[in-house]
Amino acid sequence: NVVEKKLAKEKKTRHDLGRENFLKEVWKWKEEHGSTITRQLRRLGASCDWSRERFTMDEGLSRAVREAFVTLYERGLIYQGHYIINWCPRCQTALSDEESAHKEINGTLYHIKYPIAGKGRQAEQMGVDHIVVATTRPETMLGDTAVAVHPEDERYKHLIGKKLILPLMEREIPIIADELVDREFGTGFVKVTPAHDPNDFEMGRRHNLPQINVMNPNATINAQGGPYKGMDRFAARKKVVEDLDAQGFFVRRDTHSHSVGHCYRCDTVVEPYLSKQWFVRMKPLAERALAAHRAGKTRFHPDRWTKVYTNWLEGIRDWCISRQIWWGHQIPVWYCDACRDPKEESSKGVTVSRQNPAACPECGGALWQDPDVLDTWFSSWLWPFSTLGWPEETEDLKSFYPTSDLITAPEIIFFWVARMIMAGLEFRGEAPFNQIYIHGTVRAQSGLKMSKSLGNAIDPLEVIDEMGADALRFSMIMLSAQDVYLSREKFEVGRNFTNKVWNAARFVLSNLQDFQVPPTGAIPAAAALSVSERWILSRLGCAFSETDRLLENFQMAQASSAVYHFIWDDFCDWYIELAKPALAGADPARRPHVQAVLFFVLEKTLRLLHPFAPFITEEIWMKMREAYGAGKTDWPESLMLAAWPGSADFVYSSGAAFRDPAVEELFGHLQNAVGAFRNLRSHLNIAASQAIKEAVIKPLQDSAARVFGAFGEAIRKIAKIETLKVDPAFEKSRSYVGKALGAFDLFVAIEGIDFEKERTRVSEKISEIRRWVASMNAKLSNEDFVRNAPAEIVEKEREKLAKAEQELKSNEELLVLFQA
After folding, report:
1. Is 0.90 surpassed by the pTM of this model?
2. What is the CB neighbour count within 10 angstroms for residue 229?
3. DSSP code per residue over 439-450
């Protein structure tokens, strides 16, 4: 497709080059650009065995493709036949159902008179001289061979079996009855064009109707279309409607929203087209896949994709595998003109072979190979075992098939996932993987799928050059729970986070110059540590167990979020800040314990973060290894080879577990106090650079009193307060605003605030925001708006609503502060 676009800029087509030269151009492009993907993967930090790189046109995989085709043909699962297929007039090739993406468009429904055949008494006896048919594609009426009604439609039963005159073509066609007709669509009469509609094709076969193809492969009208010969289909549509109107057959047009197939390569409107193609019988393969799924041998995460998968298998149609493009595996079928009658559906004169035959096995005459190539997915569905040497029974195949997990995007569940499962069961007797994790689709800001072919992709190498591979990786993983509307700005989350990690590590290592790692590497007994040390160790153990649980359940985005909040919030914003006074010499006795905990937590945190951000963690860990771990068994040559910590790693030297809910509850008082002070600062419009002049904490529980007694000075510094009192007997006056937090209350001194005026102002603001939120909710509840508006507009409206709801909550909290 890319090479054809390049030729188009030169005002050439592949036909100008010829097949052989065109293929040379594609191979040339592949040699120049084929390494782009692997180069990107390497820079992203993918841990692959690069000596095993394969390409679906490799000699080994080509052999696997031929073996699969011939085997399925021998088993009666591949056949050639005339059927309605999806045809792209621009690419001039057949497409599978999955390759013709359907889009909802606002089209037109045309109402057309079809005269009753016969004059005078016959028409008079029926009480009508015409019927009215509604269609969205009036140009295809040139190939109509019947009009159908539902057999139980009481309005038209008396017309079944009668003849009509096809307008413009002056051909007699019958009125037939078929249960496929939707009585509610249009007028209840449906034109039947067996060569240009899949439902009409099936109806035509049931009623033995002629199949009149009125289009050329490029979607121009052919000789069967009479006076419209040579016209493009859309130009013919316009002309047909004009002629119908001029001759008195046109009734009216209505606006009509309907789903229309588009080519996934070039976005051209797909034409349902009668053509002779090669197909795979999918029902037997699908039944095996369904049985395997019901037996628990395949499982989707999230589970909502299970129904999507099983519904497709249950309603599966045969797979059109032949393509009229030139790039791909040429179909291994040869024909003998002397033995074969092209008008007959017969295997006589047709040779299907694993090896290129020299001559016709029946008459010894010359053969020619089918010029079509196989759908690219026909090679890809063999990937789990073709890459391991199949059809040979290699050691790799015995060792590595089946695998365990597949991670992919939802748009290829049908294209690839289901087909790999079917191929694995058919050719190997086992599904190629057990767990299938479906992540969100990467889209451009416009909502379209990000694609090199569409020219709307962000080059990951440019992002890596600007922000680093870890920033890109971490941002993408955090966003992957749902479809990602990607822009450069979205990568700032990962960039800021990796900068935070680097700066935290630099701070820790700069404060370990006099530190000696304990011989066992163990943390001292809990009794020797302060609340903040015991708290961060408890949070570390919790972070690992929570990340384990989330990864086990394929909740990658949630796992990255858990890692993010532990490192940024718990370790950097809380523990490191609370550790600074001891490191600076304010508490010499505590300093060695703080260093031991900082060292331990940083080293384990690097292991926790490594799968998400391998480069920065490897760099920091190697610096730690060089300084403290060289030659030790628990410091291997690379962090990638280091063990993932388990529960046995999170214990004190005494053997007690780090996890301590009581300590976390105690420390929660400190966190809640600082958070509440920051919240009050925001509500009272006190700038972040400005200190709160006076504040009071009133403990209501002994645990809160102990924490604030120990950490009062730390709270004062972190919350930026000039004077902070901890007073269990404090009584609030009008010069303070306060906040109740259960175990304690806290208050901030204020000056010159008119409470009544502030209540009125905030109340009016709340009413205004509520009205706006209600209008936004109504807009986003409108299915027509969500369906028809550009995806980026819908996304922005949702972001506006979320921001407004947060503002509403903030103002409601502020109103409480100003209550008397």
Report:
1. no
2. 15
3. -PPEEETTSSBP
